[in-house]
Specification:
345 residues; mainly alpha; elongated
Length: 345
């Protein structure tokens, strides 16, 4: 099982600080192992330490442990070969920190509306299954009965009550599906595919893929790779089918048509016209890694902005819709009852 984004960010950040202090990687692993109380963390560091004793290479030790993403292992390998290991480790720490921030933003954005929907759904079920039949009995005792909308709502409640076992099974299946998506590896792989096609998250998923790709380019170019190699490595980070295809198109244009990187990006439409012009300036001035880092940060800001806008629209909309449903159910019962009470008076 691979390390989480937080664990990866912590490990790379600590290793970068150790190298910055002039301590060799293998001694740094020993120091980290002494300070760690977690058994699993200690086991991983022990594997890394023993492998480094045999090979003297951090990237080989990471590869042997099988808990690091292949992308991170490849970059550490490049860092060791080019002498930029400290810079690579710092960049990886920043990258995985950003990944975790985006992940937490999405979680917080989705959790509250789902909880609110669940609570209102339970209230509506209680109204139509338990409360409506009670009011119907009151109406029958008064020589009348529910009609129109209130009658239809009550019949729905009776159907739900009659087939409650089937609906409970359905709810259990839905809960199991949600748990599968939230807590399993296969579910984690399936979540992005759902986001790619769901109308409310399509643009957000695309923006996240571009942010990840931009961060990868910044990291690889800053580690000493040329643009072609950086494209090849950064493409591994992207699972979004449309973005992945545009990256492949960009590589083909550079290889077959001999276009420059900015020209190929412009042809594929991966970035906006303004962003492509900025990339062209960074490409000509040799500051492409810095520029891609800024573009990634801008994408992250836009993702946060989109999430905030989505929540600002979603929350009041849900409250209004669910409140109207509850209000209509209650009014459909109370108004006829008030009419009967008035006639009796």
């Amino acid at each position: 099982m691979q390390l989480s984004n937080t664990e990866l960010a912590t490990f790379f950040d600590q290793m970068a600080m150790i190298l910055h202090a002039g301590i060799p990687s293998i001694e740094g692993l020993a120091i980290m192992g002494e300070d760690l109380s977690s058994k699993e963390g200690g086991r991983i560091l022990n594997v890394l330490y023993r492998s480094m004793e045999d090979t003297g290479s951090l990237y080989m030790a990471m590869e042997k442990s099988e808990v690091f993403p292949s992308y991170a292992v490849e970059l550490v390998k490049i860092g060791e070969q080019t002498g930029h290991l400290e810079k690579v480790l710092s960049s990886l720490a920043a990258y995985y920190t950003r990944e975790e921030d985006v992940k937490n933003s999405i979680k917080s954005a989705v959790s509250y509306p789902l909880i609110m929907i669940g609570m209102m759904f339970v209230i509506i079920l209680v109204l139509i299954i338990k409360v409506m039949p009670m009011f119907n009995n009151v109406f029958l005792q008064l020589g009348s009965e529910l009609t129109g909308f209130s009658r239809s709502v009550m019949e729905i409640g009776l159907v739900l009550s009659r087939y409650s076992f089937a609906f409970i099974i359905l709810l259990v299946v839905l809960a199991a599906g949600a748990a599968f998506l939230a807590f399993t590896k296969k579910g984690a792989k399936l979540r992005p595919k759902i986001a790619y096609h769901f109308f409310a998250t399509k643009k957000l998923a695309r923006q996240m893929a571009i942010s990840k790709f931009s961060a990868g380019l910044s990291l690889t170019i800053g580690s000493g790779l040329d643009v072609e190699q950086s494209l090849e490595m950064s493409a591994r980070l992207v699972s979004h089918p449309e973005i992945a295809q545009q990256i492949r198109n960009c590589q083909e244009l550079m290889e077959n048509e001999h276009l420059t990187f900015p020209q190929a990006l412009f042809e594929t439409g991966l970035f906006t016209g303004l962003q492509t012009r900025m990339i062209a300036v960074g490409y000509r001035t040799g500051a492409l890694d810095t520029l891609m880092e800024k573009l990634s940060a801008n994408c992250d800001e836009e993702i946060d902005s989109r999430l905030s806008r989505l929540i600002s629209v979603l929350e009041p909309t849900l409250v209004v819709i669910l409140s109207v449903i509850v209000g209509l159910i209650l009014l459909s019962v109370m108004l006829p009852l008030l009419g009967i009470m008035t006639n009796m008076g």
